[in-house]
Write a structure and sequence with these properties.
single chain; 296 residues; alpha/beta; 6-stranded parallel beta sheet; 4-stranded antiparallel beta sheet; 12 strands; binds adenosine monophosphate
Length: 296
């Protein structure tokens, strides 16, 4: 695997079909599942590692974001990456970035409403990654369900010739969705954080039993979240997967999403609800502790 810092190097080293996995690093099994999926379908696997300042709406959050290049390098290589693209901020944006991509509608609710400017930053960096690495296919997690809708919309509207592949949420053994931010939870908050995934599983059970009303599904999630102490819920919403528009009932592929602050750490989770199949997607659970905590 080669570690490079410019798009020119990525293109020079790429042969055959290119699969791109954009990340902000501090890799975990959720990222690895994307890299492994990309490696099955493509000749050259590019993993980007860039903590994108444009998508952080709070400076403290950016400063606290975990990073460890050596750790990421060996994990990405073991999962099948050929190129690790880890650019400097100055390479990506120069001294004075002038162009920003805004996505109307898809970016308005949920994360967009609570994190002003977040999706402009996401869309801008992903557009640059698509333009610079020219991937045939690009892999994103459904953990960030609204982000997936934003990226699909942006890629379609700007005619980027890349296939967007959405992958299931990977969870820790007790259900908590994997996130690089999980390492910021103290022991007590880590235990309480399980309320998010428990709420998602309650919703999944209700959906599997035939519940399609968004209000009722939201109530089910909210009531489970209210049993946990010291969890500050920012939103619980049901939205259509295609465009992240808020829905009052589940009539097409949708997701119920939650954002909450636990012990000072902002976490998100969701459950995808497919009315055609009649089943909720609870994601994939690890059987062992995550590598996030120094294992393996
Ligand atoms: P991040 O490094 O958090 O920006 O995430 C990079 C990519 O990994 C995004 O497409 C995320 O949706 C995806 N991802 C993050 N956490 C998970 C997870 N627990 N399961 C599946 N994909 C994930």
């Amino acid at each position: 695997m080669r570690v490079v810092g410019t798009f020119g190097e990525v293109r020079e080293l790429s042969v055959g079909t290119v699969g791109l996995v954009p990340t902000m690093g501090f890799l975990h099994e959720g990222h690895l599942s994307l890299i492994e999926a990309a490696a099955k379908d493509n000749d050259t696997i590019v993993v980007s590692l860039f903590v994108n300042p444009l998508q952080f709406n709070e400076a403290g959050d950016l400063d606290r974001y975990p990073s460890d290049l050596d750790r990421d390098r060996s994990m990405a290589e073991a999962a099948g990456a050929d190129i690790l693209f880890a650019p400097d901020v100055s390479y990506m944006y120069g001294a004075d970035p002038r162009t920003s991509i805004g996505i109307a509608g898809v970016a308005d609710a949920m994360e967009g409403a609570h994190r002003p400017g977040h999706f402009d930053g996401v869309a801008t960096v992903v557009a640059k990654l698509f333009a610079g690495t020219q991937p045939d296919a690009s892999y994103f997690g459904r953990k960030d369900a609204q982000q997936l809708a934003v990226v699909r919309t942006m890629a379609g509207d700007l005619s980027f010739p890349t296939r967007i592949v959405g992958m299931p949420i990977v969870r820790e053994a007790d259900g908590l969705a994997l996130s690089s931010r999980n390492v910021q939870l103290d022991t007590d908050a880590r235990v309480r954080a399980v309320a998010l995934s428990s709420a998602m599983f309650d919703v999944a059970d209700a959906f599997d039993s035939g519940e399609r009303g968004a209000g009722r599904l939201i109530d089910i999630a909210t009531s489970r979240l209210s049993t946990a102490q010291d969890i500050e819920v920012e939103y619980v919403e049901v939205a259509r997967a295609v465009d992240a528009s808020v829905a009052s009932s589940v009539e097409s592929l949708s997701f119920l999403a939650v954002a909450a602050i636990v012990g000072g750490v902002r976490l998100i989770d969701n459950v995808h609800l497919d009315p055609m199949a009649g089943v909720a997607d609870r994601g994939i659970r690890l059987t062992e502790p995550s590598t996030l905590y120094g294992g393996r």
